[in-house]
Amino acid sequence: MKKKLIACILCAAMAGSFTCAVSAYDAKVVTEAELPAAPEFEANEASTYWTTVEYTIEDLGEDMVCTVCADGEFKQFEIKCNFFGDDQDWIGEYDAEAKTVKTTSDKTGFMEGDAPKIIEKALEQNLWIGAGDAAAAPAADAAAPAAGVTEAELPAAPEFEAKADYYQWTTVEYTIEDLGEDMVCTVSADEELKKFDILCNFFGDDQDWEGEYDAAAKTVKTTADKTGFMEGDAPKIIEKAIEQNLWVIPSAAAAADAAAPAADGAAADASALPAAPEFEPNKDYAQYTTVEYTIEDLGEDMVCTVSADADLKKFDILCNFFGDDQDWAGEYDAAAKTVTTTSDKTGFMEGDATKIIEKAIEQNIWVPIA
Description:
Blueprint: E1 9-10, E2 49-57, E3 62-70, E4 76-83, E5 86-95, E6 100-106, H1 115-125, E7 129-130, H2 139-143, E8 168-176, E9 181-189, E10 195-202, E11 205-214, E12 219-225, H3 234-244, H4 250-258, E13 287-295, E14 300-308, E15 314-321, E16 324-333, E17 338-344, H5 350-363, E18 367-368
Antiparallel strand pairs: 1-4, 2-3, 2-7, 4-5, 5-6, 8-9, 9-10, 10-11, 11-12, 13-14, 13-18, 14-15, 15-16, 16-17
């Protein structure tokens, strides 16, 4: 029998409270590209969420690709699909505890038997596209920058310093419309863009608002508000910060500065090294240095020869402890302060490689390898 792709759209057009176990369901909002299959029917605009489900009607041997939409409480659904050339349209409620449905309408009368299984699979895979108010749910993830910008790239110079205990910060030019007051806000945020701090001044009063932001509802939960006047504008300021997506990431900037080669590209000579090398540098690299390092838990002092490429991303470490020559090679991620090992002669060096490389970068004394 010829297989057909059957798109089933489960759309919620109803309201009401949901008391079943699924009321605690935590919907994972994704992009359409992350769905298991492309939809053949558009989601109902009245729905809150939709997804796609690959499903087979076993007794007919008919394969389907279902696109699933649900209301915000995952209780009431509409299923639109096509199998054997007939468009289907089923509407009803789903009982998560009993795993049964209550049909409101069924265009052909054939969908009620499969509706619970389709809905269950949709809930189990938990990959939803936000519709309506929920469409903004993935905004925080989508807005997370791959890399930060410099302060010079911000829309305005900061009037307040960012909060040091946050991951990133930006500036937002904002106007309180009913007061006609323009201001530049310094917006600090955590890495997930969920917790925020807003510093600004209007009418001569310094403001400091702090709290959490719900991207789906576009609302805030206030933790602190210095003057009590900022909660109403905080969501709009945060939304603008997320939309412009220009974040200064202090930790990444510090790592980039630390990883910069010697000032003006000036190369040191061997006499400038902190210790005489005990091993020749690896000639496959561009530069080298020496690092005096102690393995604290073993109380072992050693002098490491650290070879590096010109970009300070690839490294080779040569040293000796407890009579064994060591040779570790790999890559260093300056932002995360982690290494990826390519080779490790004895298998003992990976744990200390990161610290040795950081010390080499920090002292910033590099001798060119001829």
